[in-house]
Amino acid sequence: MISYVYYMVRIPNWNRTSTLALRRRRVALLRQLRVPRTLLRGSLVQQRLTCGKPQCRCHQGKKHGPFYYLVRCLGPGKTLKFLLKRPVHRQQARRGIQAARRFQQQLEQLIQLNTELLRRGDFLE
Fold it and tell me: What is the dihedral of CA 16, 19, 24, 27, to 10 degrees?
């Protein structure tokens, strides 16, 4: 079993929001935007596996595991995958991935605000 977590970005409707309110929201977002030190990009994957021994119980349905891996896509056809043996490492990976998602969401909000302000003819500097 392989489990992945995906998230979607919400696109706000700012038709009724004033340019001043958008600028204030942008300033507030910039004040709270910090790069987390625990930032991790990747997925925490759980797998149950079969081994190469033909008489092993794993070939009758009781697979080995679960094993937990941190998997990262490095580019087309290139992935990095390594085993997280200790529970403390799995917890750190979960926290790092969650921190990265929160940071990406905040960054996306800033990008959307800047795009809307630019669309309205406002200056970004």
Answer: 120
Query: Do 44 and 95 meet the contact criterion of CB atoms below 8 Å apart?
Result: no
Tokens 């929001």 belong to: 17
Q: How many angstroms separate the CA atoms of 81 and 68, rounded? A: 10
Question: Model pTM?
Answer: 0.76
CB under 8 Å to 60, separation ≥6 — which residues?
none
1-29: average pLDDT = 75
Tell me, rounded to whole angstroms, the distance of Cα 83 from its chain centroid. Answer: 19
Burial of 85 (C-beta count, 10 Å sphere; 0-12/13-18/19+): exposed
- Tell me the residue type at 44: L
